[in-house]
Design brief:
The complex is a heterodimer. By secondary structure, chain A is α/β, with parallel strands linked by helices. Helices cover 32% and strands 18% of the residues of chain A. Chain A contains 10 helices and 12 strands. In chain A, the strands form 3 sheets. Chain A has a 6-stranded mixed sheet with strand order 8-9-10-5-11-12, with helices on both faces. In chain A, strands 4-1-6-7 form a 4-stranded antiparallel sheet, with no helix packed on it. By secondary structure, chain B is mainly alpha-helical. Chain B has 2 domains: 39 residues; 217 residues, Orthogonal Bundle (MetI-like fold). Chain B has 10 helices and no strands. The radius of gyration of chain B is 23 Å and the shape is globular. The chains are: A alpha/beta, B mainly alpha. At the A-B interface, helix 5 of A face helix 7 and helix 8 of B.
Chain lengths: 307, 260
């Protein structure tokens, strides 16, 4: 089953160290490392998020409707407690409507939980005006249609009055869209838009990247490609990632750690460590352990969903 | 079918309607005159008579229209700009918006036909200010409501993202709300151009010494329907011209919307 390739497309003597379905050439890979070094990225030594506790966060749906619709206040998520270590990809997975996005929005400080706290490097993110460098990628790509791809990536810099666009240029090259910098979002594909969205979240060099179903609108094969590209990118940037997804394969492939949530109100059913290490390629997807892990996660979700 | 062909076909359609009008008019007119009745030309002029009116009283129509269109233009600018300003203030102060907007909707329900005489009374009959006030009023509310809707119809994800980036309100307006509402601004401008001319004409109609509105009144009382129709068609032509110019401006300012 492994290494099925079209013979005509694989020249003889080519080493199989690079995946055939990756966009990156070795040259770009070299660029990855030089860029990373030149910006002084290094592993963060302390855990990024520790003692993550969220209890009874009310659903944003109910909260925003005004004061006369308070009768239906069910908690959206409760008894959430997990840690995110540095340079770790943590996936949150669960049935739809279980509060994954709510949880991510709480981590992004968009919503405030009714009770509970989040500690970022030892500081409560809701209390003090702490420096909380995060990059947030919403479920929809949210690129501004009136700005080009490059202008979209530099938007956070413009908002902060920073005029050094060198890193933005490098990011554009890292995501493989160097030739598309002057295109408008309506001129590129859905997957490309998501990559631009991720680059925009990374341009301020956050320590924690929050991804809300980044490749949900992309077909299965492209999704695998984009997953791999994202891992490659993070191999260089070494950020911690919280990834919300409803795709079990994606979660197992991408993460070091999977958090499985139950149906509404979302609670953590189980936390699964993924033993594949930091180096990953698409061969992992063909391993028996990969199948058994996906089956475990699938069974956990099925057993705990209301339907 | 390309654009040029479509325009040619539209033009042909208009020309054929005019032709049918002329022929029908001729037939009915001769019939009525043969029966010793008043000619139809006294009530509904034929296209040729209207053209004659342009030739005979061209100077008069042009002079009067200069008054009307300059007033309409001033009214248009005041109406649009003040609506933009108010929407901007509203988005800086959401509480003010929530309090004021229902009241403004109520004010919008005043029939302008009834409100116009009141304005004329307040500002003085035939005064420049009363006419541009009515004209501005005609385009103010449509612009305000359209722009306010556009300003507040932003994808929640985008707003969340700006929240995460800690963008203050003015930055959200500058980078998100304004670009997002630009197409809507051009849309509402297309509606406001005819509205502003209607407003100016109405103001003049209620008592002014000059302007197309006054010319229409005079033409009505002097039983010169061809002059009346000539004024009306001039208004239509200028409106269409204004809308075309707006379209060109839109293509210039909202380029990204027309990408392929």
């Amino acid at each position: 089953m492994e290494n099925i390739q079209l013979k005509s497309k694989t020249p003889k003597g080519m080493t199989d160290s690079l995946e055939p379905d990756i966009l990156y050439s070795e040259k770009i890979e070299h660029l990855f490392f030089t860029t990373a070094r030149s910006y002084g990225f290094q592993r963060i030594q302390t855990p990024v998020i520790e003692h993550f506790e969220v209890f009874n966060a009310t659903s944003p749906l109910n909260r925003d409707k005004g004061f006369w619709v308070k009768k239906e206040l069910k908690p959206a998520i409760c008894n959430i407690n997990f840690d995110v270590n540095n340079n770790e990809v943590v996936s949150i997975i669960g049935p739809s409507g279980c509060g994954k996005t709510t949880l991510l929005k709480i981590v992004a400080r968009i919503l405030e939980p009714d009770s509970g706290t989040i500690f970022f490097k030892g500081q409560n993110i809701f209390n003090a005006r702490i420096d909380y460098p995060i990059g947030y990628v919403p479920q929809n790509h949210t690129l501004l249609p009136n700005r080009t791809v490059f202008q979209n990536i530099t938007l956070p810099l413009e908002l902060k009055n920073k005029n050094d666009f060198k890193f933005a240029l490098d990011l554009l090259e890292l995501i493989g869209l160097k030739d598309y910098g002057n295109h408008y979002p309506s001129q590129i594909s859905g997957g490309m838009k998501q990559k631009v969205s991720i680059a925009r979240a990374l341009v301020l060099d956050p320590e924690l990247l929050l991804l809300d179903e980044p490749f949900a609108s992309v077909d299965e094969l492209s999704r695998e490609k984009y997953n791999l590209e994202l891992l490659r990118l993070n191999k260089i940037l070494k950020r911690s990632i919280i990834l919300v997804t409803h795709n079990i394969e994606e979660a197992v492939f991408m993460s070091n750690h999977i958090i499985v949530m139950s149906d509404r109100p979302g609670e953590i059913i189980n936390q699964i460590e993924i033993p594949f290490g930091q180096e990953r390629n698409s061969e992992i997807r063909t391993k028996d352990s990969f199948f058994s892990l996906t089956n475990i996660v699938r069974k956990l979700i099925k057993d705990n969903s209301n339907e | 079918m390309n654009k040029f062909k479509r325009y040619i076909l539209s033009l042909l359609l208009v020309l054929s309607v005019i032709l049918i009008w002329q022929i029908t008019e001729n037939i009915i007119n001769t019939n009525r005159l043969a029966n010793n009745e008043t000619g139809l030309e006294a009530f509904i002029p034929s296209p040729i008579t209207i053209v004659h009116a342009y030739i005979e009283s061209g100077d008069l129509i042009l002079n009067q229209s200069a008054y009307t269109f300059s007033r309409a233009m001033v009214g248009f600018c005041i109406g649009i700009l003040s609506a933009i300003l108010l929407v901007y203030i509203f988005s800086l102060m959401p509480l003010l918006r929530n309090i004021t907007l229902p009241i403004l909707f109520g004010v919008n329900s005043f029939p302008v036909v009834g409100l116009a005489p009141a304005i004329v009374l307040a500002f003085g009959q035939g005064s420049f200010s009363s006419i541009i006030f009515i004209s501005a009023l005609m385009c103010y509310f449509p612009t305000l409501i359209t722009l306010d809707t556009a300003f507040n119809n932003i994808d929640q994800d985008v707003l969340d993202l700006m929240h995460v980036m800690k963008a203050p309100r003015w930055q959200i307006i500058r980078y998100i709300r304004l670009p997002h509402s630009l197409p809507y601004l051009f849309l509402t401008m297309r509606l406001a151009i005819p509205a502003s001319i209607i407003g100016a004409t109405m103001g003049e109609w209620l008592g002014s010494k000059n302007g197309l509105g006054q010319l229409i009144t005079v033409a009505l009382y002097q039983l010169k329907p061809s002059l009346l129709y000539a004024s009306l068609f001039l208004i239509v032509a200028v409106s269409i011209l204004g809308i075309a110019v707006t379209g060109l401006l839109e293509r210039q300012f909202v380029k990204w919307k027309y990408l392929k």
